[in-house]
Write a structure and sequence with these properties.
The radius of gyration is 21 Å and the shape is elongated. The relative contact order is 0.17. 15% of the residues lie in helices and 28% in strands. The longest helix has 26 residues, at 300-325. It contains 4 helices and 21 strands. The protein has helices spanning 35-44, 202-210, 281-285, 300-325, and strands at residues 2-7, 13-15, 53-57, 62-65, 69-77, 80-82, 85-86, 92-95, 100-103, 108-116, 150-152, 170-172, 188-193, 212-215, 223-227, 242-243, 248-251, 257-260, 267-268, 272-276, 292-297. The protein folds into 2 domains: 2-179 and 315-333, no CATH class; 188-298, Beta Barrel (Cyclophilin). By secondary structure, the protein is α+β, with helices and mostly antiparallel strands.
């Protein structure tokens, strides 16, 4: 089972949820930028949450399906088409062999995910199939996808003749993921106080609550940089480098903010003034250059409740998709 990249996009790579346990060696977890969207892409096609997906940025690639496939496209709405027909995001799609998937324009979001039943085959490095571009390891040959790459995926378990008529190149299955809670009010991002929150002046602490901050073009998978009213510290002393993670908000020289993203470094010497709550990292990931963000300070209890609610939602989605997909499995393969 395989697909071929007919034309590569600007930043296509194979990713899973990341590699953990190596931060002490300076190797960051990496992995997908929007874990909610990536997990959903996998659940919709019957995979476990950590199956390898393709992470896409606009302009997206052109992909030829060399074999029949069950796919899903989640995250950013890049107006995907199959053989020129617009298809839905956030639902499972049966795709016929020799069909061409393209992305026509960016409607909403920043990062899209292509999941395929069986998961993409990739190179393992330190227990993960995620692409680490700086190390040139994992994923697909340790690099972004290029024109001519032929990617393989797991064995198909679905009987196509029942689902696709001769004239159909694709068909959407009759259910889709509910994302209304996860991406609701997407420009409001909840944060909790960081280890160096009290290093800020009281005026600057209030600025974070009251002001909006816009995402700069220099933002990438390592960090989203923001432009806003400059913030100030109580003292000018430098701090010793300390551990950071996905969602850590640091105060840079000049008083501007950066939120560390999936390819963040393992330690940093800038004040860690706050952290984006885990449940709002998907919302943050899908913001793009120029978007304005309003940070809202919440307590740990609120962050935990929202995280647990999101995990419960994903568990229900996983079970629901599993039960629905059982109807389409070829009995000869079960």
């Amino acid at each position: 089972m395989s697909i071929t990249i007919i034309k590569n996009g600007i930043a296509d790579s194979l990713q899973d949820e990341g590699r953990f346990g190596y931060s002490g060696y300076g190797i960051n977890p990496g992995g997908v930028t929007d874990k909610f969207a990536a997990r959903t892409a996998n659940y919709l096609v019957g995979n476990d949450e950590n199956a390898t997906v393709m992470e896409l940025h606009f302009p997206g690639p052109q992909i030829l399906f060399e074999q029949n496939a069950l796919i899903s496209i989640t995250g950013a709405d890049m107006q995907p088409t199959i053989n020129g027909e617009l298809v839905d995001c956030w639902r499972p799609l049966m795709v016929r062999k020799n069909s061409l998937l393209q992305f026509s324009k960016l409607s909403t979001g920043a990062w899209a995910y292509l999941g395929v039943h069986g998961g993409f085959e990739a190179n393992e490095w330190l227990g993960s199939y995620s692409t680490n571009l700086k190390a040139g390891a994992g994923g697909w040959m340790g690099r972004q996808l290029q024109k001519g790459d032929e990617l393989h995926f797991g064995e198909m378990q679905f009987y196509y003749p029942v689902l696709l008529s001769d004239e159909q190149s694709w068909m959407g299955l009759p259910w889709r993921a509910d994302i209304s809670d996860t991406y609701h009010n997407n420009h409001e991002i909840f944060i909790v106080k960081g280890a160096e929150w009290n290093s800020l002046t009281s005026e600057s602490q209030q600025k974070i609550r009251d002001n909006k901050f816009s995402i700069l073009p220099s933002s990438d998978r390592m960090g989203y940089q923001f432009k806003g009213s400059p913030l100030e510290k109580n003292e000018t002393n430098e701090m010793v480098s300390a551990a950071v993670n996905f969602g850590t908000i640091q105060l840079l020289l000049g008083g501007q903010l950066i939120v560390l993203m999936s390819d963040h470094q393992t330690t940093g010497g800038y004040p860690r003034i706050a952290n984006v709550i885990t449940a709002h990292l998907p919302k943050l990931a899908q913001l793009k250059t120029g978007d304005a963000v309003q940070f809202k300070l919440v307590d740990i209890a609120t962050a935990e409740l929202l995280f647990l609610a999101q995990q419960k939602h994903l568990q229900i989605l996983h079970r629901s998709c599993h039960d629905q997909l059982k109807k389409y499995v070829c009995t000869a393969l079960t």
